[in-house]
Design goal:
Chain lengths: 501, 459
């Protein structure tokens, strides 16, 4: 499990409430951030349990055991002296099913009963119960999603009903299944694509679906803003102290609104001339409209969906915008292209004597006259230049840091089908939203996050299925999430059993 | 003669705060004869980022007559205990272009001189995505060997980084291996958490000890159970998954080992770290956080919890803004510029970090260790950086500074100029030899090694 999945799972396991959320947040505060891979932190190949993360699971679980044994849903009985094991068995089977997200086998039930018995001999009933709950939370069957497939039939390479319930719940909720999914698994109503789609649509409507915004946070990079955003106070005085959080909420609210409309699509994501703000954020942007603390939809002429939201623009430098970084983000994560390393020991020394009075745009243009620089910078700078009409904290502007009028005219090159002149973010957004390369990138990114792994050659059919569905539903973002449950990669197991932590 | 140490030997901490460090002679490893306690050898890698300005390291480069230029000047008081290894070559250019990452990425993994894998990052590779290095780092391998030989040592290595929450190819320097596998070791970034993990189990209060024993029993039972389950699962899975489960089982055994160590009674109970807690993500607190990590490191070494530490002032490619030094731009951004003004700033940042790093030297000198000695006598501090010169991202011209008494293994007080004819990996081989593992003649990819330790280092 990723940290987000662990937190969500534990929250649902204990029963979601503000108290639970606070307990889980505190107990998992020291979890090391996961190893990043291809822009996400949930790739199973890189989620091995290290000593530090294992220590985190041990320390956290100690803080959960009291709440677990106090939960009557898991412990509906009281121990009878001399027959404590009976009540303990009830606990083991009910809590065990929630923790392992499937019914325990008889063997597993006995295995955990033995842990209880051993602890009971040394301590008391409550202590023994806590020790048993603690053991469940250290189990790889809790910490990983292990899949062995449906009943041992040689022809079957489908996940079992409970495994499918888990696939669905971790896709939409980044968490364990709810009772409805458990019931559907129990009565084997998760076997046809139609049954799965029905559950998927139900889940997407649930408030818990807000947890899949983690995908957008990680894809767009909003999640790392708190640890990377720093601005020089002299050049950017009086910034709202909550700015980072406001920018994160802006994008989350915007994406939620696009997902909420069945027709909300990729084009909305990259071209919307509106955004969401509360009074505080509107004041920062210099926009009018919102008066309260709630985020409401407001017109934002000249803006282009997520491309011009503050979180995207704020990946700049402490003292100025960064054309390079803005362009790099689009090249890597919207076009899914590679940016190669400079050759070893390339001479990066520029003739700086004549650049003092140039704008950033002009300096970069000079930079790109050197072929070894242009190789990479042609990929980044022309995309980034288009956003010069916004400062390093996302506010609209007409002059740059040196007082020169901003020039956003540009020509995009080295894409498959998005080349050509553009001069505004809105134009660029239009071009990107219509680009097959960008659409394909969105499919690839979603595959990686929602399936928790990189696509391999065997997934070619699933990627093609997804591309087809995306197009068939006019690039609707919510319909695309449903489509993720209808691919071979989702409905079937790879030939060999696999697990994802 | 046996030296009696008070249980709360007061020493002056690096930050000027008195810290208590207990040291019981009973803890000291015995020499082969079993009679006289002998201090074990320890190693601490200390990392600072983004390369420096190579021509401003030294004014005089004579082997013993060397003089430091501006940013290395904080090292002057320690010169008799220094071995300055100048101009080592990382040799990454020898790796096939598809199997090496860019200067920062590959250089940040210099302690793990292996080729890079693929599949993790879209920037920095040649014509494919690049991955983490595929093999262990020296801090991990040295620690692994120490564990095998010393049942009493609980932690293979400790990996600390100041600031930065996220873990990626630009800020992780420790790797677990095995060879052929990407397995970065994400560092501890919270010194308070490091302290708790290492020392919370130490108590002299009988009531607390009983409660602790109960918790330990609960943990051991659960860990044994989980290790058993990992073993059962393993048999049903493919090779790649098996490696991951093996890593998990290893992690659980590590925790069991440390549980045993922390329940060894009150033998080693350092004073708690100062409160209130600092925000561990706050770049403006990097000095204080670094010094807390230094304290935890010194205690961990003195209590023999580990003998290998990998400390990082930041990730490689660090873009920390050194506001206290009057900087407004990030370190990495500054280091990319080749003009005099930028180099002046780079020198200021490096001087600042060297000033902070030598507080570790002071702490080691103030911490009793072995008969009549201090940790400084029995420790090698290895100061390193991911690049040679910052603006050119040079993979050669590496400066590595060995500091400490290092058990008398090296002939200190010298500057050696290797003229890029020896490699950074050869230097790591010298570290293995210092730690007593003289069978190691090469560490990392053969292309990055010369086939032995650096010449002319030993006493």
């Amino acid at each position: 499990m990723s940290n987000a999945e662990y937190r969500n799972t534990m929250t649902d396991l204990l029963g979601d409430s503000p108290t639970t959320q606070a307990l889980v947040a505190a107990a998992t505060r020291n979890f090391p951030s996961e190893t990043e891979s291809l822009g996400f932190r949930n790739n199973a190949d890189y989620l091995g349990v290290s000593t530090l993360s294992a220590q985190g699971y041990v320390d956290a679980a100690e803080q959960f055991v009291d709440a677990i044994v106090a939960n009557e849903a898991f412990l509906p009985c009281a121990p009878v002296a001399g027959a404590e094991a009976d009540c303990a068995r009830t606990f083991i089977d009910s809590f065990g099913k929630s923790a392992f997200r499937r019914p325990l086998t008889l063997e597993e039930s006995s295995q955990y009963a033995a842990i209880f018995d051993k602890s009971l001999k040394a301590y008391d009933f409550d202590s023994a119960l806590r020790a048993t709950a603690f053991a469940f939370l250290q189990s790889p069957k809790f910490l990983y999603r292990v899949e062995f497939g449906a009943a041992p039939s040689a022809s079957s390479s489908r996940p079992s009903a409970y495994e499918m319930a888990n696939r669905l719940s971790y896709l939409f909720w980044q968490s364990m299944p709810d009772q409805t999914l458990f019931d559907a698994a129990e009565s084997n109503r998760l076997s046809t694509p139609a049954e799965i789609e029905e559950q998927a649509r139900r889940m997407l409507r649930s408030p818990k679906a807000s947890r899949l915004l983690e995908y957008f946070d990680e894809w767009l990079g909003t999640d790392t803003l708190p640890s990377t955003f720093t601005r020089d106070v002299t050049l950017y005085p009086n910034l709202d102290p909550n700015l980072v959080s406001l920018l994160q909420q802006e994008t989350r609210t915007f994406v939620t609104s696009v997902l909420a409309r069945p027709e909300g699509n990729l084009s909305d994501l990259f071209t919307a001339p509106y955004t969401f703000a509360n009074a505080e954020l509107a004041k920062h942007y210099g926009l009018s409209g919102p008066t309260g603390s709630d985020f409401v939809k407001i017109d934002a002429p000249g803006r282009a969906g997520v491309l011009t939201q503050g979180m995207m623009l704020a990946r700049d430098k402490p003292t100025r915008t960064s054309i390079v970084r803005r362009g790099l983000k689009l090249r890597l994560d919207v076009l899914c292209q590679l940016v190669p390393a400079p050759p070893p020991d390339v001479n990066l020394t520029l003739d700086t004597a004549n650049t003092a009075n140039l704008t950033q745009r002009q300096r970069l243009e000079q930079h790109r006259t050197t072929p070894s620089c242009a190789t990479c910078h042609d990929l980044m700078d022309p995309l980034g230049v288009v956003f010069e009409g916004f400062d390093a904290v996302g506010r609209s502007r007409t002059t740059d840091e040196q007082g020169a009028a901003v020039d956003t005219s540009s020509e995009i090159t080295r894409t498959k089908d998005a080349n050509g002149p553009v001069s505004t973010p809105a134009q660029l957004g239009e071009v990107l939203a219509k680009s097959e390369e960008v659409r394909s990138c969105y499919v690839t990114k979603s595959f990686r996050f929602f399936y928790g792994r990189d696509a391999d050659p065997a997934d070619a059919c699933s990627l093609a299925q997804l591309a087809q569905s995306f197009k068939g539903k006019a690039y609707s973002l919510s319909e695309f999430l449903i489509a993720l449950t209808q691919t071979d990669a989702f409905l079937y197991l790879p030939v060999r059993g696999s697990e994802s932590p | 003669m046996r030296k009696v140490l008070s249980r709360r030997t007061l020493l002056r901490g690096a930050a000027g705060v008195g810290i208590g460090l207990p040291l019981l002679e009973a803890m000291l490893p015995r020499s082969a004869s079993g009679a006289t306690p002998s201090a074990p050898r320890r190693i601490i890698f200390v990392f600072q980022a983004n390369g420096d300005q190579t021509k401003r390291r030294f004014i005089d480069t004579g082997e013993t007559s060397f003089t430091f230029d501006e940013f290395l000047a904080p090292l002057e008081p320690y010169r008799k205990d220094l071995l300055l290894l100048n101009r080592l070559d990382r040799r990454y250019g020898k790796l096939p272009s598809s199997e090496r990452a860019d200067g920062h990425q590959q250089g940040g993994a210099s302690l793990a001189p292996w080729k890079s894998g693929e599949g993790a990052f879209p920037i920095g590779g040649a014509n494919r995505s690049i991955g983490y290095v595929m093999g262990p780092s020296a801090d991990h391998e040295i620690g692994e060997r120490v564990l095998k030989d010393n049942a009493g040592v609980s932690a293979r290595h400790l990996v600390f980084r100041v600031n930065t929450k996220e873990n990626n190819i630009w800020n992780v320097s420790s790797h677990a291996g095995p060879i052929g596998q990407q397995s970065p070791v994400n560092p501890e970034i919270d010194p308070y958490n490091a302290y708790t993990s290492l020392f919370a189990g130490n108590t002299s209060d009988p009531g607390a000890a009983a409660a602790l024993a109960k918790r330990v029993a609960m943990k051991q039972s659960a860990l044994d159970n989980a290790i058993g389950e990992l073993g059962s699962l393993r048999a049903k899975l493919g090779a790649a998954d098996q490696q991951r489960l093996d890593q998990h089982a290893q992690a659980l055994r590590d925790i069991e080992r440390s549980l045993l160590a922390t329940t060894g009674g009150a033998a080693c109970a350092p004073m708690p770290l100062a409160t209130p807690k600092l925000n561990v993500f706050d770049d403006d607190k990097h000095v204080e956080l670094g010094q807390l990590f230094f304290k935890v490191s010194a205690w961990a070494l003195a209590c023999d919890r580990t003998r290998s530490i990998n400390f990082n002032w930041s990730g490689n490619t660090s873009n920390r803004v050194y506001k206290s030094l009057g900087m407004t731009e990030g370190h990495h951004d500054i280091s990319h510029i080749s003009d005099d003004q930028a180099f002046a700033k780079v020198r200021v940042i490096h001087k600042h970090l060297w000033q902070q790093s030598v507080t570790l030297h002071e702490l080691l000198k103030a911490t009793p260790d072995g008969p009549g000695g201090t940790l400084w006598d029995n420790t090698l501090v290895v100061h390193w950086n991911e690049l040679g010169q910052g603006d050119t991202h040079s993979e050669n011209d590496a400066l590595v500074v060995f500091a400490g008494g290092a058990g008398g293994h090296f002939k200190m007080g010298r500057l050696l100029d290797f003229q890029n004819k020896a490699s950074f990996a050869d230097m790591l081989v010298s570290c293995f030899h210092y730690m007593g593992f003289e069978d190691v003649m090469s560490f990392g990819d053969p292309l990055l090694n010369s086939g032995g330790p650096l010449p002319n280092l030993k006493a």
